[in-house]
């Protein structure tokens, strides 16, 4: 298991989405507040409101955790209930932070927050060490495919900055991580309350010679940069602009959407799924301006050389690199609704922009997120995680979640209420043989 001090030198300093998670009261919200405060990312009026709220609570110093605990119930109870997102920039790169709740009853919130993160900061209270919730959140972070884990041993000020405490926690976590199959993990001692080793190094952790937390974040690889990706463009909308003043310029059929993975250029051959028709890219427009290429996470309008019947839910891929059509998927599902999952019911499955009817063919097992043991189940309740087989009324064109998180994920919708009731990650299986040789072993799989 590697524990390097630095990420690779040649990296993309673009947007980084990261998550803070861990056990209750480990200081997740305070850590985010410290990051924002020490990087001068808090506006003056927000600081004033923060100071006033801290005074009302009888505090002599700023309570930085209030920056993310936005719900009234969160402020009153001193806990995080819902996922809080914050944006900040250091000049080197931009960040979107997700603060996930630590309570087991909010597992669905944590899974939602982790689904878009590229790095997870797992906090551990230096006084308590590795707890059940630490293990649970580590497993969930790995389950949803977060590639980089940073274990931050917080509240070092409460153990006199003792290096032996840090070493013991590191050893305990590595033992657990090895049994779970977690690969790359980095460790850092810090104090979110005093700011030691968060943005500035401070003076009390001189025995630690690694980077600060901000330095780790600044150098972490951005999403879509660590392995080649196949081009995937789910069509969201068919655009027919018309300009009476210049009809020759603005009279066309364009296909709007977001590049979920890979890149495409004018002249490249593409295939439309499910029809299988082939054509080439005639033009790429971003904000009404033509550009030669489009890359991952860009929302663009694509114009094609041939007139093809394309609608929302279709998928454009590079010719020769199309995923296979499947009507049965093996998936790990987190149940989000208060109404239990019933195998007797049909649900609407939304995969990218495509919607198909689905039913549960088999619940292979349910996972206990505390013990990580698997057991039988006939239904799923809110926050349950299980391995399912789903049969679909029409085919979809997914990639395994480990290969592409955008095209390997889906949600389940209750047809009667239109509520989102489940979130799933598609497993590599016999139904997806195209990627079998390309996918490395991934143990965060809700069980084999």
What does this protein structure show overall?
By secondary structure, the protein is of the alpha+beta class. The chain has three domains: 16-219, 3-Layer(aba) Sandwich (Rossmann fold); 232-318, Elongation Factor Tu (Ef-tu), domain 3 (Beta Barrel), CATH 2.40.30; 326-435, Elongation Factor Tu (Ef-tu), domain 3 (Beta Barrel), CATH 2.40.30.10. It has helices at residues 28-38, 44-56, 72-77, 107-114, 132-143, 163-180, 213-219, and strands at 16-22, 84-89, 94-99, 119-125, 148-154, 185-189, 232-239, 254-258, 263-265, 269-273, 278-286, 289-290, 293-295, 299-304, 315-318, 326-335, 346-351, 354-367, 374-375, 385-396, 409-413, 420-426. A six-stranded mixed β-sheet has the order 2-3-1-4-5-6, sandwiched between helices. A six-stranded antiparallel barrel has the order 7-8-14-11-10-15. It has a six-stranded antiparallel barrel with strand order 16-20-18-17-21-22. A hairpin with a 6-residue loop joins β21 and β22. The two termini are 22 Å apart.
Short key terms for the protein model shown above:
single chain; 448 residues; alpha+beta; Rossmann fold; Elongation Factor Tu (Ef-tu), domain 3; 6-stranded mixed sheet; 6-stranded antiparallel beta barrel; 17% helix; globular
């Amino acid at each position: 298991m590697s524990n390097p001090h630095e990420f690779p030198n040649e990296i993309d300093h673009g947007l980084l989405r990261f998550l803070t998670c861990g056990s209750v009261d480990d200081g997740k919200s305070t850590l985010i507040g410290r990051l924002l405060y020490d990087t001068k990312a808090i506006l003056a009026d927000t600081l004033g409101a923060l100071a006033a709220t801290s005074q009302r609570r009888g505090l002599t110093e700023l309570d930085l955790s209030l920056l993310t605990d936005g719900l009234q119930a969160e402020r009153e109870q001193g806990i995080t209930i819902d996922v809080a997102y914050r944006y900040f920039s250091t000049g080197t790169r931009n960040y979107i932070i997700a603060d996930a709740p630590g309570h087991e009853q909010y597992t669905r919130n944590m899974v939602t927050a982790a689904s878009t993160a590229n790095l997870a900061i797992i906090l551990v209270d230096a006084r308590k060490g590795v707890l059940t919730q630490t293990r649970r959140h580590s497993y969930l972070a790995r389950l949803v495919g977060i590639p980089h884990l940073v274990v931050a041993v917080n509240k070092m000020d409460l153990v006199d900055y003792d290096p032996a405490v840090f070493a013991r926690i590191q050893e305990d976590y590595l033992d657990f991580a090895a049994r779970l199959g977690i690969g790359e993990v980095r460790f850092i001692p810090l104090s979110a309350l005093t700011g030691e080793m968060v943005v500035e190094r401070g003076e009390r952790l001189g025995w630690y010679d690694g980077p600060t937390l901000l330095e780790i974040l600044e150098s972490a690889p951005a999403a879509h940069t660590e392995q080649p990706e196949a081009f995937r463009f789910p069509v969201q909308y068919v655009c027919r602009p018309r300009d009476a003043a210049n009809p020759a310029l603005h009279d066309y059929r364009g296909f709007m959407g977001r590049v979920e993975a890979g890149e495409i250029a004018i002249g490249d051959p593409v295939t439309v799924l499910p029809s299988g028709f082939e054509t080439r890219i005639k033009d790429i427009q971003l904000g009404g301006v033509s550009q030669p290429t489009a890359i991952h996470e860009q929302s663009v309008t694509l114009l094609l050389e041939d007139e093809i019947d394309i609608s929302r839910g279709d998928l454009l891929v590079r010719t020769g690199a199309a995923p296979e059509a499947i009507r049965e998927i093996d998936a790990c599902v987190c149940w989000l609704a208060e109404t239990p999952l019933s195998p007797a019911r049909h649900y609407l499955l939304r995969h990218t922009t495509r919607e198909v009817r689905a039913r549960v063919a088999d619940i292979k097992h349910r996972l206990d997120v505390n013990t990580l043991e698997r057991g039988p189940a006939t239904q799923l309740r809110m926050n349950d995680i299980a391995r399912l087989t789903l049969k679909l009324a029409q085919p979809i064109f997914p990639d395994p979640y480990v290969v592409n998180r955008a095209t390997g994920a889906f949600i389940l919708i209750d047809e009667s209420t239109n509520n989102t009731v489940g979130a799933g990650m598609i497993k590599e299986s016999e139904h997806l043989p195209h990627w079998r040789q390309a996918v490395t072993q991934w143990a965060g799989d809700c069980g084999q």
